[in-house]
Amino acid sequence: MSLQNKNKLKFLKKINNKQGLTLIFSSILSIFIISILNLGLNDSQENKRVYFEISLIIALSVITFFAIIQYKIKEEKIKSLEKSKKALDESKKALDEASIIDITDAQGKITFVNNKFVEISKYSREELLGSDHNLLKSGHHTNEFYRNMWGTITFGKIWRGEIKNKAKDGTFYWVKTTIIPIIDENNEISGYTSVRTDITEQKEQQEKLTQTDIKKDEFMSMITHELKTPLSPIMSWAGMLHDGVLGDMTEKQKHGILKIQENSKELLNLINDILDVHKLELGKMNFNLSTFNIKSLLSKIIEDYNTDNSIDCQFLLESEDMMISSDNSRVTQVIRNFVNNALDFLPENDPQIIISTRDEKDFVVILVKDNGSGISEENQKKLFKKFYQVDTSSTREHGGTGLGLSISMGIVHGLKGKIGVKSELNNGSEFFIKIPKNYTMQLTNQGNIT
Amino acid sequence: MKLLHIDDNKEILEPFEFYFEIIDDFEYTPCSDSKKGLELIKSENYDVILLDLSIPKMSGYDIVNTLYQSEEMKNKKIIIFSASNQDENEIKELIKKGVHSCLQKTISINEITEYLKNSFGVMNVTTK
């Protein structure tokens, strides 16, 4: 009903609501006029008759006026109902065109099916009517699934879900289903209306994607296994040669072996990075939790860098002893990634990296600050994107795949934390992570990270 | 420490053989045939068994399952040493069946011996 019509009906009703009162008032008024005219005035009989007639006409006019209003209200109501019925018919038609609809009795016997239902089930209407809904069972769902469904609808509640059904010709189809119980005047369930949408194509696409993911997963497992297998003896032999287990070597030979070891490690890191990216993409990264002292962990990282003679940098640690429950090796991986990136951009004079921690209630913040060349604001936004590198020119001085920070971000998010950077060109950078002190507690108390 | 190492790839076993020929504290037995390896596990008394997972015909999983089903995992210290990427569930399942731990290939021989000494101490020392 349009707004104009609504207002009209409202106005008429308003007048009509006062109809009884106005009728009484107009009748009293008529009698009052007659009485006044009759009392005190010695009008002729003729005049009295005229006054009476005038009063009668007034009263009749008022009655007629309200009768007309009543008629108008009825007319508007009929118009309104007709419009509603038309709109309802249109909706039904649209629903009928778009959805697969059926109605069953309280026992699940089909009492109504629309054309789309007949079409998708490939049964005739005659075959369907009176049949049990079990006719369409595909065998895909467990008994528990159907128990849950019946448990919901027999309780008078609406059930929503996805069902795999079997058509008459043996083919399967998926439907997104809403089952609505029909409640009768005695407040009892007299049947069920089901509205379904065909989602077979969507499900098939989903299945294909799952299959692709499985194949991709298998391929990644195979390729990393095959790459690591020859790398294992290469590293074993190089290690033994370097350690002098197989005899003494000249300095030049030692240098050559060292390069083999360094490059083997690089290759291994790359394989592990690719595997990590793959795990993060599939959401399959696992975390091994343990309780450890964050200060000890950072000291160990710094100690490792300090024992590497090829690294020329002053490391400083500013941290208090603090026990946290998280993934020791993954936190190490992230911090080492920060340090490795920082090492690439340090100045020649007085290169310095400060690793510090900050206690923030349920979280610990770990910061890696350097006095390197810094990163522009524009580049900071892209840093954590996969394969992004600040310098991608053919003359670039720094290697790497651009996966490190993207993996670090995935790990930190997996540990229910945050990652970020503060930097200014020519003024160093500060990378930080904020992770829960107790990962397990954080899992049951999500959303506390500010 | 009596150590049995089962891996079908002889390239993996060779550096270990060289290493343990020189290093004391370990009596090392390489085995590239997993069926023979299973027999050795059953018949001999090894302190530690390094076991690869991807082996043709009889995999590391098959060996663990066979020993588990015949309730022979008791007192066997099996360490998985593989380049395969086992997920958490696979590792849990292996540990549940009695496997001691899982090590990833490319870990150096030095690190392995350190790990063994730290985990089990020096047992049955054989000086060469």
Main attributes?
heterodimer; A: 450 residues; alpha+beta; Beta-Lactamase; Helix Hairpins; 4 domains; 5-stranded antiparallel sheet; 5-stranded mixed sheet; 13 helices; 12 strands; 53% helix; elongated; B: 128 residues; alpha/beta; Rossmann fold; 5-stranded parallel sheet; 5 strands
Give a nutshell description of this structure.
By secondary structure, chain A is α+β, with helices and mostly antiparallel strands. Chain A has 13 helices and 12 strands. Chain A has 4 domains: 95 residues; 100 residues, Beta-Lactamase; 78 residues, Orthogonal Bundle (Helix Hairpins), CATH 1.10.287; 154 residues, Heat Shock Protein 90, CATH 3.30.565.10.
Descriptive notes:
- The complex is a heterodimer of chains A (450) and B (128).
- With 450 residues, chain A is an alpha+beta fold.
- Chain A has helices at residues 3-17, 19-38, 45-98, 115-121, 125-128, 143-153, 200-242, 251-282, 294-307, 328-344, 377-382, 404-414, 439-443; strands at 100-105, 110-113, 159-166, 172-183, 189-198, 290-293, 314-318, 323-326, 352-360, 363-370, 418-423, 429-436.
- Chain A has 4 domains: 3-97; 99-198, PAS domain (Beta-Lactamase), CATH 3.30.450.20; 205-282, Helix Hairpins (Orthogonal Bundle); 290-443, Histidine kinase-like ATPase, C-terminal domain (Heat Shock Protein 90).
- In chain A, a hairpin with a 5-residue loop joins β4 (172-183) and β5 (189-198).
- In chain A, α7 (200-242) runs antiparallel to α8.
- With 128 residues, chain B is α/β, with parallel strands linked by helices.
- Chain B has one domain (2-120): Rossmann fold, CATH 3.40.50.2300.
- Chain B contains 5 helices and 5 strands.
- Chain B has helices at 10-22, 34-43, 60-69, 88-96, 109-120, and strands at 2-6, 27-31, 48-51, 78-82, 101-104.
- Chain B has a 5-stranded parallel β-sheet with strand order 2-1-3-4-5, with helices on both faces.
- The chains are: A alpha+beta (450), B alpha/beta (128).
- Chain A binds chain B through residues 221, 224-225, 228-233, 235-237, 239-240, 243, 245-246, 268, 275, 284, 286, and chain B through 9, 11-12, 14-16, 18-19, 22-23, 54, 83-85, 87-88, 104-106, 108-110.
